[in-house]
Amino acid sequence: MSKMGDFIAFNAVVELLKEKGKDSYMQELLEKCKELQQNNKLQTENVVKQLYKQFTTEEISAKIAQLITPPELDIPVDVIFQSIEDLHKSCPNNKGDWYFTGDYPTLGGNKVVNMAFINYMEGKNVRGY
């Protein structure tokens, strides 16, 4: 897992939370991650997935478009994500959707994404592993 702040979808969710006055939710999730870490259970669940559940894919896509569009650009920019359901339809024999769903095939994936989130929240510019 790279650094959380390197992901545009994550940055979009952070901005949406701020706009809705829900940025304290990130602190709640940090506390949950820290509790899991203290109990040596950071690998048991992907806590970060909860952030994305706060918004629709359309809301996240619109915010990404806003974030990547230079202010001087006078044409509309749209970002469109394929839904997970449509991804499954287009690739029926490939179950490697973990990168998009956060449903990691190993416990290590959960641990790394949670650690990357802790690092982000603590202002550490390092990877989660």
Topology:
Blueprint: H1 8-19, H2 24-38, H3 49-52, H4 57-68, H5 84-90, H6 98-101, H7 107-121
Helix pairs in contact: 1-4, 2-7
Q: How large, in whole angstroms, is the Cα Rg?
A: 16 Å
Anisotropy-based shape: globular
Could you estimate the helical fraction of the residues in percent? 40-55%
Q: How far apart, in Å, are the first and last alpha carbons? A: 7 Å
Main β-sheet, in a few words? none
N to C succession of SSEs: HHHHHHH
Number of helices: 7
Mean pLDDT rating:
89
Give the tally of structural domains.
Answer: 1
The secondary structure category is mainly alpha
Multimerization status:
single chain
General description of the model:
- The protein has 129 residues and is an all-alpha fold.
- It has one domain (4-121).
- It contains 7 helices and no strands.
- The chain has helices spanning 8-19, 24-38, 49-52, 57-68, 84-90, 98-101, 107-121.
- Helix 1 (8-19) packs across helix 4.
- The longest helix has 15 residues, at 24-38.
- It is globular and about 50 Å long.
Summarize the structure.
This protein has about 130 residues and is mostly helical. The protein has seven helices and no strands.
